[in-house]
Amino acid sequence: MGGSEALYVALYGKAPIDNQNQTFRNLVNRGSLKAEFLALCVDKLDWHDVTLGELFALSKEDKGNGE
Fold first, then answer.
1. Helix (H) and strand (E) counts for the chain?
2. Which of 1, 2, 45, 61 gives a 20 to 30 Å CA spacing to 19?
3. Measured at the alpha carbon of residue 13, what is the angle toward residues 9 and 15, in degrees to the nearest 5?
4. pLDDT in tens, 3-25
């Protein structure tokens, strides 16, 4: 098991049923991520020391500080 199904199990503690895996995959692929989803990832995937910049692969040039 890998990919979206493994991530689903890691986050929700159970295997997806029916079309839950496809729905989950669509939400992730489309970037339809809410703060609640990020909080769930922090909790279940031990992202406590990961910054948003690291999560979204932002470089210092991407910060848009006008410099």
1. 4, 0
2. 45
3. 50
4. 899 999 999 999 999 999 999 99
Q: Which amino acid is it at 28?
A: V
Q: What are the structure tokens assigned to 52, written together?
A: 């948003």
Burial of 24 (0-12, 13-18, 19+ CB in 10 A): middle
5 closest CA partner among 41, 23, 38: 23
pLDDT in tens, 20-66: 999 999 999 998 789 999 999 999 999 999 998 898 888 766 556 55
